[in-house]
Design goal:
By secondary structure, this protein is of the alpha/beta class. 32% of the residues lie in helices and 18% in strands. It is built from 14 helices and 17 strands. It is globular.
């Protein structure tokens, strides 16, 4: 008997590892290399398709707290990230190729994980397998069209959609360091970012060309929603001439270390690989035509002769209306998923409405642990909303507003102990420290109370 997982991204791989390390056979199905989505280029598992940054490492930030929670529970994604990180100041960024290779290698080497490379067009293809005990659907926001239609029909709810974009990556040795320089990001952390500075005249010349540049045609773009976290730079610029200067080109805290000079605007690039040969343009997600990217971005001081390892691209993402459909374990709670479905079905990853690499992995971890509980006869586990992992699950399953949108880690969705506010008063920094500390204490108690899951199982 086995738990079947469709999708070899962050959520699917995390779920597979959690199950197999607890003695459960896993069949992990990924459509690559038989078929690639518009954003994927590698046949490796856990491929990064957008930024190579996992956001802040500071445990007193929401994203930093989520990563530390994942580490303490035993996350293979965090093991891979920590083993393949590249300098990125106060952020955790990874070499995308080495990271994917690490995850692929770990799962390949696990005797209880069988990796199948094929396209799944319907849920019935998997649940009809005679050894299926449970199913986790972790196909991500770029779920193949036929499977997406099948899921939508089964859930009886329309799949929502939004558009996501990736930033260009340039070769370091093609950057002119007579103009560009290394510095930290907004004065925080080490000097790990390449900075391309602009004066007022250079910025406005660049801005005028950017807003007038030709964009690649993306089907249904004008009808769809653009996710704010990956807003194309040209769309952002269209909101006004100073929008970029208060966004990705914000010059605050950035000073030339040689001259002490301040600037009107700054483009920053972050290391993309361990070999220190490629850098991605931070906040420059785009749907400009490739030729236009080379022309317009070539106006940025230091990038006049830049060679692109990858141009920016844009693609359509989908996610389900999870509230009322999933419970806080990411299991389908709504009846009517299909008369042919007699096994527990979970969703995990960005298809549930969580947003971000580690957020996706966290949903895979929760789904994996609860799939283990289902097939082993143990009680399920719901992480409390005073933890970031639990808060994300609660948001996806229980958001009560009229406009459900993708959500990344943040303190606003958490419900900490009331004593936190009382002890912190108006000190926001102290409040975040207390929330983070409280969350990690709670996780330690959960691990102790649920030794049937957390102590007896992690053997690999």
């Amino acid at each position: 008997m086995a738990v079947y997982i469709i999708g070899g991204g962050f959520a699917g791989c995390e779920a597979a590892w959690q199950l197999a390390s607890r003695g459960i056979k896993v069949v992990l199905i990924d459509m690559k290399p038989e078929r690639f989505s518009p954003a994927h280029v590698s046949s490796g598992l856990c491929e990064l398709v957008c930024s190579n940054s996992f956001k802040s490492s500071d445990v007193n930030t929401a994203s930093g707290l989520l990563k530390e929670e994942m580490r303490r529970i035993g996350s293979v994604v965090m093991k891979a990230a920590d083993a393949n990180k590249v300098p990125a100041g106060s952020a955790l960024a990874v070499d995308r190729v080495l990271f994917s290779s690490y995850i692929t290698g770990v799962l390949d080497d696990m005797p209880l994980v069988e990796i199948r490379r094929r396209v799944v067009s319907s849920v019935s293809e998997v649940i009809s397998e005679p050894d299926t005990e449970a199913l986790i659907i972790a196909t991500g926001p770029l779920t193949d069209r036929a499977l997406c239609d099948d899921i939508t029909e089964r859930l009886g709810t329309g799949a929502l959609s939004f558009f996501d974009a990736a930033a260009p990556v340039v070769y370091k040795d093609s950057i002119d360091f007579g103009k560009a320089f290394f510095a930290s990001r907004y004065g925080k952390g080490d000097s790990d970012y390449i900075n391309c500075p602009m004066n007022r005249e250079e910025y406005h010349a660049f801005y005028n060309e950017l807003v007038g540049a030709q964009c690649a045609e993306v089907r249904d773009f004008d009808k769809g929603d653009v996710y704010e976290g990956c807003m194309p730079v040209e769309v952002m610029a269209g909101r006004g001439p100073d929008t970029l200067r208060y966004g990705p080109m914000k010059p605050v805290g950035i000073r030339n270390p040689s001259t002490g000079e301040n600037y009107y605007a700054v483009v920053q690039l972050r290391r993309d690989d361990a070999a220190d040969s490629m850098y991605n343009m931070v906040g420059f997600q785009t749907r400009l035509k490739f030729g236009e990217q080379k022309r317009v971005f070539g106006m940025i001081p230091g990038l006049e002769n830049a060679e692109f390892a990858r141009y920016g691209v844009m693609h359509k993402n989908t996610y389900i209306r999870s509230p009322g459909v999933l419970d806080a374990t990411y299991e389908v709670s709504k009846t009517g998923f299909g008369d042919d479905v007699s096994v527990p079905v979970f969703f995990a990853g960005q298809i549930t409405g969580v947003e971000g690499y580690i957020e996706s992995a966290s949903s895979g971890l929760v789904a994996g642990l609860n799939a283990y509980s289902k097939v082993s006869g143990a009680a399920g586990i719901i992480f409390p909303q005073s933890t970031q992992i639990g808060a994300l699950a609660a948001y996806a399953s229980g958001y009560g507003g009229p406009d459900f949108q993708p959500m990344g880690a943040n303190f606003g969705i958490m419900i900490p102990d009331p004593a936190v506010s009382a002890n912190a008063g108006k000190d926001k920094k102290k409040k975040k420290e207390l929330i983070s500390g409280g969350s990690l204490d709670i996780l330690e108690h959960i691990k102790s109370d649920r030794s049937d899951i957390f102590e007896s199982s992690i053997r690999q």
